[in-house]
Specification:
The complex is a heterodimer of chains A (215) and B (574). Chain A has one domain (4-185). Chain A is globular and about 55 Å long. In chain A, 51% of the residues lie in helices and 2% in strands. In chain A, helix 3 (68-81) crosses helix 4 and helix 4 (95-106) crosses helix 7. With 215 residues, chain A is mainly α. The model of chain A is unreliable at 1-19 and 33-48 (pLDDT under 50). Chain A is built from 8 helices and 1 strand. Chain B is an alpha/beta fold and 574 residues long. In chain B, 24% of the residues lie in helices and 19% in strands. Chain B is built from 12 helices and 19 strands. In chain B, strand 9 and strand 10 (300-310) form a beta hairpin. In chain B, helix 1 runs parallel beside helix 7. Chain B is globular and about 80 Å long. The mean pLDDT of chain B is 97. Classes of the chains: A mainly alpha (215), B alpha/beta (574).
Chain lengths: 215, 574
């Protein structure tokens, strides 16, 4: 499979960049040194909820919302919207699996149904081009079909275009909030150390991945 | 210090009880403890320990459950109101109240969003840390147009207490010598970004009466020796403050007032103690103590003290007073005037405007600044031609578009990915924070039948924005659009919005100060007119909302009230 290498790289980078919260606290105590004020009596244990763990498995199985075939299609759309360049793309960091999980837990039924209907639409248009399914089209045909959808051109209307924009948002959210998206494709500094209002910028510089906790 | 700081049952008569552990409660405890008072701080929620319990801190989105969002089922069942707060998310949700356990009602046809932080530290952990003094124009406002009662204090009464709390808390900002917004004791301000500096210069030229200044915040841009001795270091510009700051680079109870109070050895804390009511002794006309319901097992207990400070948040404090009834005070303790629960205010954040800034392609910034800019209220002098009373401040900030803006463009593939990777155009926005008039009709009251799980009557709100607030926000949108266009911004748009009262989380009034015991609950030292050993020092005591973020004034009023109370005790008048 062509994605094998990419997937291995993704999981390796996720592992090597692991730095736990406990490690953060330990480093912090060192930094404060002698001036640390003792904490007051005992508190609650640190509780860290489980984050979505990207899968490296290319053998997709049914998800929480999407069945196996729908996930294969969504993965292919991810790889077209945000492909692998000198950094991994959306498919390699399991954005499709993330979307399945995220839509299930944090979105409305309406949002879920919008994406399901969109996947059906994409496959049915592929069939009109004489293919069994979208993923059986050539790479060029796939790109062409999604471009038409993205622009609301040819057989696609503006509502379908808006729905695809929504799916692109889910893909972008999944990708740019992943470790690869935030730290390799974009720039992320967990502890900047202070704020500087002016630094030089040139066009090849990546943008900051975040402006803070809520934006 | 550590041994037995936390207590459960106690028959001791403390020198002082402080109800609440937020910004006001923390200050009250610190000031009492440092004056040698054995102090009991009562907190309705559980313990949150500095550093140890900031479970969402320093956790990048990819390591957070649902990348920072909160699961539907949890929101539906526990956080249907709290979710309206901008700071509600996966990393902070444990610091917000559980709406299922904290029901309240609104009078049909009205709305009120009540955001809760019921744990040790209260909303001092969740506030946005904007810190502004009130000025002479603010203290005079009610007197001049007749809305609300006259504040019984002026800047000369409170300025040294502002200085006192500012030096300890650490306030960053720039000295401006403005008539409408007094300066604080400042640490250096945060830096402005290049386009912000340019717009500031443009406004200075076009609107000399409307200066744009750096926001003033309780963040340590350059900690003093005092701050370092408190175990606090410089702001690291993560802008993840609401998840908890182990650097203590911001002001919170845990980072600042609690360690100071605990150091004296005079502090005790009763966590998980929901105050049901105050215990009143009619013979001596004093409050003897408080009745508490255990947060967890609902058992009852009592605590006793010589002086009682109610610092339970605006709504929380007044709820306690209202639920403390006796033969002498059938409508709530200290309520001989009948105004308890009335004149409820919030700030009105209901106007936004923004536009694109040309140029500055070679400019960027580093770090995440936990503050924006501020244009102080330029309508501080009354003017009948304006068509509405009072005024508004405008918050402001620039940003350069990142992936979250650029994702919406057309395109796919390598080209799309590479475009998103680059920083986009600069944008700049203004939002209003407007004064809300003190009106008798805007009120909270105890629901006649509904109670919460602790057996305490629920609050029913009856609060409305009126035409004055609406006209003000329409003006704010109009002025903002006009100023942005005049400064040369492109694609300027703006509008007034309709978010409910309460959502600014600046609840004020309901137990107001005043000179006349017939029309106010508290005197000019936050002391009950009716009962000498009872004080309310949080936002409930405000006579008007002004436009400034109120927390710094909670601190100063509280420190001042403790100083007064201790002197009154020494003089045997309490």
């Amino acid at each position: 499979m062509k994605n094998d290498n990419a997937s291995t790289t993704a999981s390796a980078s996720i592992r090597t960049n692991e730095k736990s919260r406990r490690h953060f606290l330990k480093g912090f105590t060192t930094m404060l040194g002698g001036v640390a004020v003792g904490s007051l009596v005992t508190g609650n244990a640190i509780s860290v909820a489980m984050a979505y763990v990207p899968s490296n498995d290319n053998m997709l199985t049914d998800g929480k919302i999407f069945n196996k075939n729908q996930l294969v299609l969504l993965k292919q759309i991810c790889s077209i919207v945000i492909p692998k360049t000198d950094t991994l793309g959306a498919a390699e960091v399991d954005t499709h699996g993330f979307i399945d999980n995220q839509l299930y837990h944090c979105h409305t039924k309406e949002d879920q149904n919008t994406v399901l209907a969109l996947l059906t639409l994409i496959d049915s248009r592929a069939k009109q081009q004489g293919s069994n399914s979208f993923i059986k089209l050539t790479a060029k045909q796939q790109f062409q079909l999604l471009t038409e959808l993205d622009l609301g051109e040819h057989s696609f209307d503006q509502i379908q275009r808006a729905d695809f924009k929504l799916l692109k948002q889910y893909i972008c959210f999944g990708y740019y909030t992943s470790e690869v998206g935030a730290t390799q494709e974009l720039r992320y500094d967990p502890v900047p150390g202070g704020f500087k209002g002016s630094i030089p910028y040139k066009k090849s510089d990546p943008t900051w991945a975040t402006r803070g906790l809520f934006n | 210090m550590k041994e037995q700081v936390y207590i459960n049952k106690s028959s001791e008569v403390y020198d002082a009880i402080v109800i609440g552990s937020g910004i006001s409660g923390g200050w009250a405890a610190k000031e009492f403890c440092e004056r040698g008072y054995k102090t009991l701080m009562i907190e309705r929620g559980g313990v949150v320990e500095h550093r140890k319990d900031y479970s969402g801190e320093n956790t990048p989105l990819w390591k957070q459950e649902h990348r920072g969002k909160v699961e539907n089922i949890l929101v539906d069942q526990q956080h249907n109101i709290q979710k309206q707060c901008y700071a509600f998310g996966n990393a902070t949700k444990q610091l917000f109240g559980n709406d299922r356990d904290l029901p309240y009602t609104t009078k049909p046809g009205t709305e009120f969003s009540w955001i809760r932080g019921n744990m040790l530290g209260g909303k001092s952990l969740l506030w946005h840390r904007q810190t502004y003094r009130l000025g002479e124009y603010d203290f005079n406002a009610n007197k001049l147009d007749g809305y609300g009662n006259d504040w019984p204090i002026r800047t000369k009464d409170i300025e040294k207490w502002y200085s006192h709390v500012e030096i300890h808390a650490g306030i960053s900002g720039s000295k401006e010598n403005l008539p409408n917004l007094p300066d604080s004791e400042f640490l250096p301000p945060f830096e402005m970004m290049a386009p912000e500096k340019a717009i500031k210069a443009k406004f200075a030229e076009l609107y000399p009466e409307r200066p744009l200044i750096m926001g003033r915040t309780a963040h340590l841009t350059k900690p003093s020796k005092l701050h370092i001795s408190q175990g606090r270091v410089q702001c690291q510009a993560r802008n993840e403050c609401h998840a908890g700051c182990s650097y203590g680079a911001y002001f919170s109870t845990q980072s600042s007032t609690l360690p100071a109070a605990a150091k004296t050895g005079n502090l005790h804390i009763a966590p998980n103690s929901v105050v049901h009511s105050l215990i009143y002794d009619e013979k001596t006309n004093r409050v003897k103590g408080v009745r508490v319901i255990d947060n967890n097992d609902l058992s009852e207990r009592e605590y006793f003290a010589k002086v009682i400070f109610v610092c339970a948040s605006t709504i929380g404090s007044t709820q306690i007073l209202m639920n403390s009834t006796s033969k002498k005070f059938p409508n709530g303790i200290a309520n001989s005037s009948g105004v308890l629960g009335h004149y409820l205010m919030d700030h009105n954040y209901n106007s936004v405007a923004s536009g694109d800034i040309d140029g500055f392609e070679n400019e960027y910034y580093s770090g995440r600044r936990p503050s924006g800019l501020m244009m102080p209220n330029f309508y501080y002098k009354p003017d009948p031609k304006r068509g509405f009373l009072r005024g508004y401040a405008l918050g402001a900030s620039a940003y350069r578009e990142g992936w979250d803006s650029q994702q919406h463009q057309d395109g796919l593939g390598v080209e799309y990915k590479n475009k998103i990777k680059q920083a986009g155009k600069w944008r700049f926005g203004l939002y209003a924070q407007g004064e809300m008039l003190p009106r008798f009709e805007n009120q909270m009251r105890l629901h006649p039948t509904l109670k919460d799980k602790w057996g305490i009557p629920q609050i029913e709100f009856d609060v409305r924005y009126t035409e004055n607030e609406q006209l003000m926000m329409e003006d704010a949108a109009e002025q903002s659009i006009k100023m942005l266009k005049a400064a040369g911004l492109k694609n300027v748009s703006g509008r007034s919005t309709h978010r409910p009262p309460g959502i600014a989380i600046h609840e004020l009034g309901t137990a107001r100060m005043g000179r006349d015991p017939k029309t106010s609950i508290l005197n000019g030292f936050n002391q009950s007119h009716d009962i000498p050993n009872l004080f309310v020092t949080d936002g409930a005591s405000f006579c008007s909302s002004a436009v400034q973020n109120p927390s710094l004034t909670f601190m100063a009023l509280t420190a001042r009230a403790v100083d007064y109370a201790v002197k009154e005790v020494a003089a045997k008048r309490i």
